[in-house]
Amino acid sequence: MHKLIKKITANNGGVFTGNGTNTYLIGYDDITLIDPGPNDIDHIEKILALGGDKIKRILVTHTHTDHSPAALPISKKLNIPMFGRLVDRDSEWEDETFAPDTVLSHGDIISTNEYTLETIHSPGHASNHLCFYLKDQKCLLTGDHIMDGSTVVIAPPDGNMTEYIESLKLLESYDIDYFAPGHGEFMQEPSKTIQSIIRHRLSRESKVLRSIENNKDQDIDKLLLSVYDDVPDILHPIARMSLLAHLIKLEADGKILQTDNTYSLSV
Question: How far apart are CA 186 and CA 69, in angstroms?
Fold first, then answer.
């Protein structure tokens, strides 16, 4: 991958984070720090050792607690601005310490003599989620919108399945050679990856509809057992969040009805 991009993985591996959260430093002498990660002393020291006072700004893809808490201490230490967005809806995953000096909108450009980053608003995993397109290198820094080796959790009310799929489709209009994800390794074949994720989500949606058709008036817990029968039981609490996101989408699409917390097909 391009020498312009340096990656540090935080030591915060787990069910939600895989091997850990990836922090990226973009540039040589005018460095942009993307997703500084958890407020972990060792991780922060690694970032500062690699970038030091060449770090000029901090960008945050979204404000979940594994991505942005190190932003404030690094910002204070280096006296540099933070860029990002706050969520639009309620979320239990939020880093309450992050308040951007500059609120980023879709299409905003951050340009240096070394590179240009374009902001892509990509809600779905979170309402404030941003991807960053490193134009000259045709690299997309995806945050948690696309992850290597695991499926992205969509947790309502801030997570939204309709927005997630639309944001995936939006990325197909960009000329991307590879992804730099928030978790895992650099990813090749971006177009195939995007199409595969969309197919997976729509396939799961079809499974929801078939389960509702075959078993009348199921609640979400019964649906979970049939729709995610291919997922280990230990992951069912996480799968339940995405199932709820699917159900909200299907109800909004007019395909199902909810009555007294049970679901049926629309007539």
Answer: 23
**Angle, CA 162 vertex, CA 264 and CA 241 arms, to 5°:** 65
Cα dihedral 106, 107, 112, 115 sign = positive
126 phi/psi in degrees, rounded to 5:
-150, 150
Pick among 1.10.3210.10, 2.40.10.10, 1.10.1060.10, 1.10.10.10: CATH of 197-265: 1.10.10.10
pTM: 0.96
In contact, 31 and 55? CB cutoff 8 Å:
yes
Return the pLDDT at 127: 97
- Give the integer Cα–Cα distance in Å for 45 and 217: 54
Q: How many residues does the chain have?
A: 267
Buried b (16+ CB within 10 A) or exposed e, 171-194: beeeebebbbbbbbeebeebeebb
Q: Which CATH class is domain 5-188?
A: alpha beta
Closest to 201 measured CA to CA, from 143, 267, 146: 146
Q: What pLDDT score was predicted for residue 243? A: 97
Phi, psi at residue 202, to the nearest 5°? -70, -30
User: Residue ranges of the chain with pLDDT lower than 70?
Assistant: 1
Tens digit of each residue's pLDDT (9 = 90 or more) over 106-152: 999 999 999 999 999 999 999 999 999 999 999 999 999 999 988 89
